[in-house]
Amino acid sequence: MMENAWYKLLDKMDSVGVPVYSVITPLEDAGVPTLWFTIGVVLMIVGAMAVTLMPQRTVHFDITVTTGGEPLAGATVRFGEATQKTGGTGRVTADIAYGSMVELVVTHPDCELSQSTVPAKDDYKASIALKCTT
Q1: Is residue 44 part of a domain?
Q2: 48 and 87 co-located in one domain
Q3: Does residue 91 contact residue 85 with C-beta atoms inside 8 Å?
Q4: Same domain, 69 and 121
Q5: Are strands 58-67 and 124-129 parallel, antiparallel or unpaired?
Q6: pTM of structure
Q7: Are 114 and 105 in contact (CB under 8 A)?
């Protein structure tokens, strides 16, 4: 019954100019059950689209940069590919893709570099103290 509906659909597509039998006939000649083959291909395409279009899970990074216990304005914080400058609060935030390893680099013209690698598995909050010359 299901196969009859399948072939009626193929005949209908063929009658409106879609050359379905140029694909179906060689598959059937090779012994491939085209109904189940087509269902499998459609499911794989739908699955790939679902994975590709699904929103990525992210974790929140909240970094405060200080020097001498005070917030440091003008520091550059790089979270992997994203870069931000700290304002008067010394704070920057970013949402990072879950599961990645994030290279966290903090620089300031008057301070020593701070560099670390952090796994993006949980929300991350840190205060980074830089040693500055002025």
Answers
A1: yes
A2: no
A3: no
A4: yes
A5: parallel
A6: 0.58
A7: yes
